[in-house]
Design a protein that fits this description.
Length: 137
């Protein structure tokens, strides 16, 4: 099955896969070859891709998933491969976001800080999954 992950800026990934698990609005969804045609909303979270007996993880922003059973398209606001996330920078960004949430003078700034905090938590979970997967191999 062919997968294509797109953001407004670029094609993030394009490859043959066995399956993809993504954070749909109402819970996780796994798409395999010959899946029933589907169009669904995605929320921020972690995508797991299985291919060649390996698992790859990406952190995504909200968007859409569409499949016809032969191809899967993810159109998302952002997508970062597990190798693009620097753990030390992530820890720093997470701490800064927590501080900004507490100290934000306006609701708008607090909401922006909360969005950054949510994103950092997703990325932290992604790195934990990657470490767990590497240990179990």
């Amino acid at each position: 099955m062919k997968l294509q992950i797109l953001t407004p800026k670029k094609v993030v990934l394009e490859e043959e896969i066995e399956s993809i698990t993504a954070p749909a609005k109402d819970g996780e969804i796994t798409v395999l070859a010959h899946h029933t045609p589907l169009f669904t909303l995605l929320k921020e979270g972690i995508v797991k891709i299985k291919h060649d007996a390996k698992e790859t993880f990406l952190s995504i922003g909200s968007g859409y998933l569409e499949t016809d059973g032969k191809k899967v398209y993810l159109l998302v606001s952002s997508a970062y491969h597990q190798d693009e996330i620097d753990e030390s920078e992530l820890t720093k960004a997470h701490e800064e976001a927590k501080k900004k949430v507490k100290e934000a003078p306006t609701d708008k700034e607090r909401h922006e800080a909360m969005a950054t905090l949510r994103k950092s938590l997703i990325d932290i979970k992604l790195l934990q999954k990657v470490k767990k997967t590497k240990r179990s191999i």
